[in-house]
Design goal:
5-stranded mixed beta sheet, alpha/beta, 2 domains, 36% helix, Nucleotidyltransferase, domain 5, binds zinc ion, single chain, 316 residues
């Protein structure tokens, strides 16, 4: 049986898996990305890990990879803030020269989107979006049965849609972007804003901004802390309004929420759905589902990367 090799390149680690056409993971491996000096050191470890994985003589049809700042058209990784790379790394070409099989590369958020589409919560859907709520907000969009790429390969950047003109400063240089409100970091910023503007007593007041995690806020909210609950409510309010706007653009059947913040469950989903329903256009009310990921963050990207091998023909 032929297999696909999926690769999920992250700032902390790079994960690899051999995947069959039904999405079953046959073998896994990983190595540290953060300990690599540069792209040469990275490729050295990547080649070594792939060769170990293929030790059993498995035949692979191709390689699919997801990476931050991937240029999907050129097969390059460009200006990735969290990777120890020079400004432009020829990922597709380098792997093709070494292994001589088709290589496919997509943005990390698109890899997760493809994973959910082929094997997870969006199976069979023609229109949906995936939002990954972690340190920032990643997004992938499938519209009318196609993964949205955009003219220059940067389409679907929902994290940088402005939800508050003149609002919070964003890493992209603009103000009021969605991810400054709806992400693990955005939730923390909301907690500190509510602290400054209210007298609510809360165990969160004794934790510094640097030390606080989304899990601290989740645990406080779960044990009834008003300040923490209000932070989730405000986050859901902003997210629901943004989703109602996005529904006006491309009318998804569902929005799938994944990433650390989405594991908060009802604390996030309930206010998000309430806000979406309140703000949605009349003909969208009651129609757009908000669903949790069916795969978990890590496997979604790995499986989606592998799915590229079975579902596209691009090669570098
Ligand atoms: Zn931004």
């Amino acid at each position: 049986m032929q297999l696909a090799l999926g690769i999920d390149i992250g700032g902390t680690s790079t994960k690899l898996a051999l995947v069959d056409p039904s999405g079953n993971i046959v073998a896994r491996a990983f190595f540290s990305t953060v300990e690599r000096r540069d792209e040469d050191d990275f490729f050295h470890h990547l080649f070594e890990t792939i060769e170990e994985l293929l030790n059993g003589g498995e035949e692979i049809k191709g390689i699919g990879a997801g990476a931050p700042s991937a240029n999907e058209r050129q097969g390059t990784i460009e200006n990735a803030a969290n990777l120890p790379f020079s400004p432009k790394v020829e990922f597709g070409k380098t792997l093709y020269q070494r292994f001589g099989i088709p290589v496919h590369l997509v943005k990390d958020s698109n890899a997760s989107t493809l994973g959910e589409w082929h094997f997870g919560a969006a199976k069979g859907m023609e229109n949906f979006m995936l939002l990954t709520l972690g340190t920032g907000l990643g997004c992938g969009i499938v519209a009318d049965g196609r993964l949205l790429g955009g003219e220059f390969g940067h389409g679907g950047e929902a994290g940088h849609v402005c939800v508050q003109p003149g609002g919070r400063a964003c890493g992209c240089g603009r103000q009021g972007c969605l991810e400054t409100y709806v992400s693990a970091t955005g939730l923390k910023r909301t907690v500190f804003e509510i602290m400054a503007n209210s007298m609510f007593d809360s165990p969160l007041r004794s934790i510094s901004f640097e030390a606080m995690t989304a899990r601290n806020i989740f645990e406080a909210a779960s044990s009834g802390d008003i300040l923490a609950k209000k932070s989730f409510e405000q986050t859901g309010e902003v997210l629901g309004l943004a989703l109602a706007d996005m529904a006006a653009w491309f009318e998804p059947a569902a929005v799938i929420l994944s990433g650390g913040l989405a594991t908060a469950g009802d604390l996030l989903f309930q206010p998000t759905i309430e806000s979406l329903e309140r703000h949605a256009l009349a003909f969208h009310k009651g129609k757009i589902k908000v669903l949790p990921s069916a795969l978990g963050e890590n496997d979604a990207a790995l499986l989606g990367a592998a799915a590229l091998v079975w579902n596209s023909s691009g090669t570098w």
